Amino acid sequence: MNKRxxxxxxxxxxxxxxxxxxxxxxxxxxxxxxxxxxxxFVDPIPWDSTKSGNEAxxxxxxxxxxxxxxxxxxxxxxxxxDFLLTQKIPEKQKQAxxxxxxxxxxxxxxxxxxxxxxxxxxxxxxxxxxxLNSEELALWNAVAGVIWxxxxxxxxxIKNHNEESCIWPLSEKARHNDLNGAENSISYFEKALExxxxxxxxxxxxxxxxxxxxxxxxxxxxQWLIPAESFASEKPMPAFENIAADIGVDFxxxxxxxxxxxxxxxxLLDIFTGGWGLTEHCYYLINNGDGTFTDLxxxxxxxxxxxxxxMMHTDYNNDGFPDVFILRGAWYDEYGILPNSLLRxxxxxxxxxxxxxxGLFSCHPTQTAVWADFNNDGWLDVFIGNEGLKNSKDDxxxxxxxxxxxxxxxxIAKEAGVDIVAFIKGVAAGDMDNDGDPDIYIxxxxxKNHLFRNxxxxxxxxxxxxxxxxxxxxxxPLQSFPCWFFDYNNDGxxxxxxxxxxxxxxxxxxxxxxxxxxxxxxISALYVNNGDGTFTNKGNEVGLNRTLLVMxxxxxDIDNDGWLDFYLGTGKPSLxxxxxxRFFYNDGGKKFLETTxxxxxxxxxxxxxxxxxxxNNDGYVEIGAQMGGAYEGDGFQDxxxxxxxxxxxxxxxxxxVGDQTNKIAVGAKIILNINDNGVxxxxxxxxxxxxxxxxxxxxxxxxxxxASVITSVTIEWPVSGKQxxxxxxxxxxxxxxxxxxxxxTKDLVPAFVxxxxxxxxxxxxxxxxxGM
Length: 772
Hints:
Shape: globular
Oligomer: single chain
CATH architecture of the domain at 75-226: Alpha Horseshoe
Number of strands: 43
Helix content: 10-25%
Largest sheet: 5 strands, mixed
């Protein structure tokens, strides 16, 4: 039945249509029109310099939306559904089946669930349906089961949302009140499995549907039961509560980015987030320090400003106020020629788009970039990994490396030796050889990955990178997505983690994993730094031998034991892809143990950008998850998992301020020497190390386990080469260390308890109500 799954995953419009395409030009997208089935190029969309930066970008993206919201574009689901509805239903059996599969899928993707279920009934009442063979019926029943499951999610998890909705395994509170979706999906999955017992995707989804009814495990037919012990936590952990709706931060978006950062300099982490839909907008909320947030989206200039698939904080003008960089166009292939946005933080809770004036305006499909001071001049540069077109010669979507000339940027990727073309899904920067300058790791989906060593001579303005991927031994997995540098074993050498992601792999994989059967997905890689320029892949040894299908991700020390854990957002665009997000606990730098179930963070909706940051100043990091899928009707509420802070471990929160080094100290290294219950050990962190599809705050919250005092704090400043060493630092406090000052300043940052918001969000916007 691989053919069945392939059809479901890659279904294309079966009616012959002329598909409008785009070609790249540096100045922007070309508008197109059709003349007798031929594409004719019109003038490029101009940048309107008469408008302010925000207005000009909003205007530009509105025009992009008009020319991309057309049938044939993968994510224009309403347009695709409407087009199909205008077509004559094919008379031949196979073509009719494919037509209805595509129609109900597009209606489901568009959020028009009631229309989709009506069309299921329409087809099943037709004479054509009666002629389907067993393989065709198995395919149809699996598709119909998914649509009815989405019906259940819409009328329960979204319309009647609570803090435990869709968190797997489903609790009593997460059970469905409207049973139509779950009951109908079970009926269809059972019929699919009678015809094709190897359909482990339907097995998995059926088990979830029984959970939705409150009949798991007792109600599941024994031959299809996935036992609870197969997904039990590998280490006991306390439960985290999803408080996003309670405090009004459950933003109802499609997939996108999220940042928790102090944007206004008051030592409180604020929230900046947004989905990738061009009709959606960013949100900006400031932290009041009393358990509440104030929504300043409109005042900040973000009310109509579209987000992107990913966003990150930086400080391009070196003023100490974190700016925001938004990435766009990913997964759209030739349609993804969209500009990114650089938003200047004006220091007064407003943001101004300076993309065009700063020299960063270019149009390539991307969702990944990394900011670092590659030439050690005290100004943050940016490397952007673009998506080269698959299955075609691509001469224009090269990677970009923009050098910062005090707020103006110049692309020198070719001169520096990093102008590669590939379908790049993740980039990360880190000093892998401890020579004082950042190197670049590149995750490629569909080919070998790359590691570029920064070989720039000290004091030289000529950046030079050497591709030492083969020597380093970091080329796999060949289908990968998010990645990052971090020192997972605290040996002073940063390691690389790279997660496997094959969107064309079978939907059977998740069921196969929990049933102990083989799965298609490659094992993710943990490349342990050997200290000699080479790495050893220990992914299988440390517990990554699972079918993870990771998209968003981030890392942090959840229990303050001094070891970095990570949380993964999972899934793929298909509505069939209902799999839990997953948490992995770092067991002393030896192994990663899954603790998803105990922590109650196994959300079944699609997980995108993740942040692990201390939002309430209690010294323990929370988990922020930007939720929602890529399709127009697959939005979902964001999550904020409150750390119960019940681990009884100590910590230190350190903010660094650069002088010769960039102001927000990206690239500065922190080394803590501690005596942990008689064990002398070191803990290593680097400011600005982030997942390629997630963020952590610039303020470093570092757990020290049972140490009652920090023997020494050492800061290594990359530009000046200076070392700041401070001895006998008390634990459980917030401090600031400056490059140009001795000692540290204690920051008065009181902890607080979150308060329930009186302004919940309207989640109806996530559904097309005409189809309800």
